[in-house]
Amino acid sequence: MTDRRIGGVPWWELRFDAGGDPDPVSVAALLSGARAHGVTDLVVLAHGWNNDRVVADALYAAFFNLLTRQVRRAGPWAESLGLVGVHWPARRWPDEPAPDFEPAGAASPGPGPAGLAARAGADSVGRRRGTGRPRSAGLDDETRNVLRATFPAGAPALDRMAHLLRTSPTHARVRAFADELRQFAIVTDDGCDDDGDAVPTSPALTVAGRTVDGPAPAGPASALPGMLDVDPVTLYTRFLDELRRCHTPLDAAVGGAAGLVDPLRGIWYGAKEALRQLTYWQMKGRAGRIGRAGLGPVLTRLVTMAPSVRIHLVGHSFGARLVSFAADAAQPAAGGAVRPVRSLTLLQGAFSRFAFAPALPFDPVRSGALAGLPARIDGPVSVCFSTNDSALGVFYPLASLAAGDDAAATPALAERWGALGFHGATGVGARSLPLAATDHGGYRLEHRRVHNVNATAVVRRGGPPAGAHSDIVHPELTWLVLVAGGLVPPPAGA
User: Fold this and answer.
1) Do 43 and 67 touch, CB atoms closer than 8 A?
2) Contact assessment for residue 411 and residue 387, using Cβ atoms and an 8 Å cutoff
3) Which partner for 386 in 111, 312, 416, 459 could form a disulfide, CB atoms 3.0-4.6 Å apart?
4) Which among 63, 23, 58, 15 is positioned nearest to 43, based on CA atoms?
């Protein structure tokens, strides 16, 4: 296979299907290539919930180009560094503004595969951003085809929902849409219970505080999001109100609040947003499965072949969940005591703020699904968060809205259903740190401990409704990855 590089550093792709099965060709290329290049440190980056192949490649090119420039300035560490971009099926809705991964003032991409990917991503962004175009209440053909390909089992329900969104809303049709939304959730269920990414702490399921065989079977409500049990008019109106509050461009005919004259005016916008959030919910379950059953075992194979390789995992959005479950699943080389993951950096992580907690504050008989993971990382865990991320601060909690919740209780919802990328990690004694400037130490990170890194001042670009959720290509963030992995000199006096 052709030697591929970003910033002069060898890089590889790892591709996984929806079930977590890796592409054997990409795995073989990584295993043989890492040995041939004498890689001692491998930085693995996983994209998030709405990246198609072109956008993901643009992310990897932009992020890794920043990182390699920094590591080369810092010393000889780049000579044995390797890079990996994880590709997993998490297709972007075509009506989403495409993420802009080009850092301010960045130079034009250079030649080679990385430069081509970056230019392709930039072209795609320029063609498809569409931030000023009003959002439609219907499912256009491109969006429906993308969703059908991503969730083939849900295709019949998608077709029926698309038909309903083209009609004038009535109470009967809104209820019919809710029925189809539930059916879609059932047939595409990826087993993701967002209640703190939680598992019971009963002795039968834990050993020394650690879950031994994954999340427990779901209860009577299965793993379906709580919003499916809410009155659909109430739920969809709530989503519509939040779209307005985030200044999302909508058709002028929608106007202001529905009011008493026509309580269903604009309701299809809210219904479509509920479908969008449900697909993201299902992606979260998929990300965890691919991490645990796919990437984790690949990393174990790698360190079995090359026990000296140190692995540094980085994930964005649901990719943060993917790499976290991979870190939990990766095992030391045979006979070794040290786990292979030497740092874990989560950028705008789209999973529960309580995922690492030994006990949930609202339900102490359960723990986070990844409770104890930080102590199993042979290095620091860094959780970057930004309050400019409205995808996680506003819409993410709404998918967990339960019947009977106060419609005005968004802060309370965020407390229970909040995401790592908006709040940081909770219930694990995390250290709070500001995001430091680049090209100097700036951090004294502790091994086997969580650090909540406030990136609000830097992660701030992005239009409605997602806000700054995808604004992750910054030298401050790549520098944090390098410091966390010990790939640059520690700060003076550390």
Assistant:
1) yes
2) no
3) 459
4) 63
pTM of the model: 0.86
β-strands 41-46, 198-200: how paired? unpaired
pLDDT in tens, 220-238: 334 688 889 889 999 999 8
pLDDT higher for 87 or 113?
87
pLDDT, mean over the chain: 82
The residue extents of the domains of the chain are 141-192+212-279
Q: How far is CA 250 from CA 129, 145, 146, in A?
A: 16, 23, 22
Summarize pLDDT for 419-462 with one digit per residue, the tens. Answer: 999 999 999 999 999 998 776 657 889 999 999 999 999 999 98
